[in-house]
């Protein structure tokens, strides 16, 4: 199971809440994989991808609202994740027939969440913590 | 979450920044590879995780315990980390079993020996327990180093160019064994290497680092190979053919025909990179005749060959390019040689002409 413990918090509530929702979604998918509920898994992955995209848009407008100077770079980073989301969608259609695809999907979900989403957000953590202090 | 988590790591030697706000996560059971040239900061990052280098900015967490943050540094021996480095650094005057029990000083002697023997058994070296390191080959010594690293049940294993002291055959064998054992023990592993093939083989996730102490790309080995973010990452895996051009109607004109791209806009100056294995040689008799070429030279490397070709006609007549084919190149069987390009091995990046 994946969880957002203290060291993974951005300390901006809107963002951390979104990240928790994404992690919940990933855990549901991992649970489905573990239980060999492959059809369920194939349904859940597109939901996760939608949720991720919604989160990216919400985060981007928040960064813009507080004039984070690297907003454009972060938008570019989110855009660069499109390929990975495509990969996860493709893997999700293969999990029933292919144990390696199931394993690849599980790994990719965890790295995508912890490394591509949360770790990349660490870049703006201190800026946004200061910017939102008392204003949230 | 169990594993290693490094956040916002910055590091400088004097005025030179070697790490620029790097964050990474290695979940338990996964292997993350830092790949980059010497001086890219990858070893510094590993040494900060291990506590051999004093942290300057950021935090390091292992299994949710903060082991380093500004003003607080847990010493290396208290971090529960196993190490395996290029020079396996076994103690020459100690027997193999004593080398493996060395890190188990917190256990009582009998328990330590039992644990050490289990580990030697795991790496297939139990029968050598009474020997001294100089009596073993480089590969065997590296297995002992792995047993020693895993004996104290570490929360994290750090590998620094662990196989580069071994010859080619032994390297392939030992790295496969090492990977199997690390996966079996379900420990988080961070490995540093400058060898892209090694990173591809070992890693669940590769982080490519550039000269500026920044992570250039993170992804599965397949992402790094098939979707490199820039020319630098694409070229990590060996020589590339390139064509500079302008995008028209969503394609780049080349001697191999128009090559479609979604990665650039019409009118944009771009560089098209083609991997040597992305050029297919054939006899031109299929439906797609391909581009006629002359073979300049062919070198058999073992399971593949590098074939140098030149264009036989057209505006770029005589221009040379490299092709990698499986097995040996058989000129007699091929007759008139033609080439076409497999778009899966082509990459397009914006290119400002100097
Ligand atoms: Fe985020
Ligand atoms: Fe983000």
Q: What would you note in describing this structure?
A:
The complex is a heterodimer of chains A (136) and B (354). Chain A has 136 residues and is mainly alpha-helical. Chain A has one domain: Four Helix Bundle (Hemerythrin (Met), subunit A), CATH 1.20.120. Chain A is built from five helices and no strands. Chain A is elongated and about 50 Å long. The mean pLDDT of chain A is 94. With 354 residues, chain B is of the alpha+beta class. Chain B is built from nine helices and 21 strands. Chain B has helices at 42-50, 96-101, 109-122, 138-150, 168-185, 196-202, 221-226, 231-235, 331-334, and strands at residues 3-13, 16-27, 31-35, 57-62, 65-69, 72-73, 81-85, 156-160, 188-193, 205-209, 215-219, 241-248, 251-252, 259-260, 269-274, 279-282, 291-300, 304-311, 320-326, 338-341, 346-350. In chain B, the strands form four sheets. Chain B has a six-stranded mixed beta sheet with strand order 7-8-9-3-10-11, with helices on both faces. The longest helix of chain B is centred in the middle third of the chain and has 18 residues, at 168-185. The mean pLDDT of chain B is 92. The chains are: A mainly alpha (136), B alpha+beta (354). The A-B interface holds A 2-3, 5-8, 80, 83-84, 87, 104, 107-108, 110-111, 114-116, 118-120, 122-123, 125-126 and B 1, 5, 7-8, 21, 23-25, 27, 30, 59, 61, 64, 66, 204-205, 218-220, 223, 227, 229.
């Amino acid at each position: 199971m994946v969880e957002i413990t203290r060291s993974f918090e951005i300390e901006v509530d809107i963002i951390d809440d979104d990240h928790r929702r994404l992690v919940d979604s990933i855990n549901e998918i991992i649970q489905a994989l573990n239980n060999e509920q492959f059809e369920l898994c194939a349904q859940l992955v597109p939901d996760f991808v939608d949720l991720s995209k919604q989160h990216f848009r919400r985060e981007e407008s928040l960064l813009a609202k507080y004039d984070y100077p690297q907003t454009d770079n972060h938008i570019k980073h989110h855009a660069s994740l499109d390929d990975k989301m495509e990969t996860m969608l493709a893997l999700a259609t293969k999990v029933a027939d292919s144990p390696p695809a199931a394993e690849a999907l599980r790994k990719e979900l965890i790295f995508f969440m912890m490394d591509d989403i949360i770790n990349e957000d660490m870049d703006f953590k201190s800026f946004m913590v200061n910017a939102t202090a008392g204003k949230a | 979450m169990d594993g290693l988590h490094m956040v916002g790591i910055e590091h400088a030697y004097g005025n030179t920044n070697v790490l620029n706000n790097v964050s990474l996560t290695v979940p338990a059971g996964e292997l993350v590879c830092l790949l980059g040239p010497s001086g890219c900061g990858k070893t510094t990052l590993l040494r900060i995780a291990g506590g051999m280098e004093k942290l300057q900015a950021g935090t390091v967490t292992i299994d949710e315990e903060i082991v380093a943050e500004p003003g607080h540094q847990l010493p290396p021996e208290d971090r529960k980390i196993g190490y395996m480095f290029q020079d396996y650094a076994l103690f020459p005057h100690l027997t193999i079993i004593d080398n493996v029990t060395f890190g188990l000083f917190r256990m009582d002697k009998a328990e330590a020996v039992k644990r050490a023997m289990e580990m030697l058994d795991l790496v297939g070296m139990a029968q050598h327990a009474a020997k001294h390191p100089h009596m073993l080959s480089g590969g065997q010594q590296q297995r002992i180093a792995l047993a020693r690293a895993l004996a104290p049940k570490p929360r994290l294993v750090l590998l620094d160019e662990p196989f580069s002291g071994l010859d080619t055959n032994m390297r392939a064998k030992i790295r496969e064994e090492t990977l199997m054992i690390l996966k079996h023990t379900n420990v988080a592993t961070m490995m540093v290497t400058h060898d892209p093939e090694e990173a591809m083989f070992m890693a669940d996730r590769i982080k490519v680092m550039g000269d500026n102490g920044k992570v250039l790309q993170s992804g599965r080995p397949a992402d790094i190979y098939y979707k490199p973010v820039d020319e630098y990452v694409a070229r990590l895996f060996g020589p590339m053919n390139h064509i500079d051009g302008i995008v028209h109607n969503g394609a780049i004109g080349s001697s191999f025909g128009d090559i479609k791209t979604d990665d650039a806009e019409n009118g944009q100056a771009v560089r098209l990179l083609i991997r040597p294995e992305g050029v297919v040689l054939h006899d031109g008799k299929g439906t797609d005749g391909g581009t006629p070429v002359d073979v300049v030279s062919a070198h058999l490397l073992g399971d593949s060959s590098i074939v140098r070709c030149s264009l036989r006609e057209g505006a770029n007549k005589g221009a040379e390019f490299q092709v990698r084919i499986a097995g040996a190149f058989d000129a007699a069987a091929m007759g008139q040689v033609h080439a076409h390009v497999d778009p899966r091995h082509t990459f397009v990046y914006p290119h400002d002409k100097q």
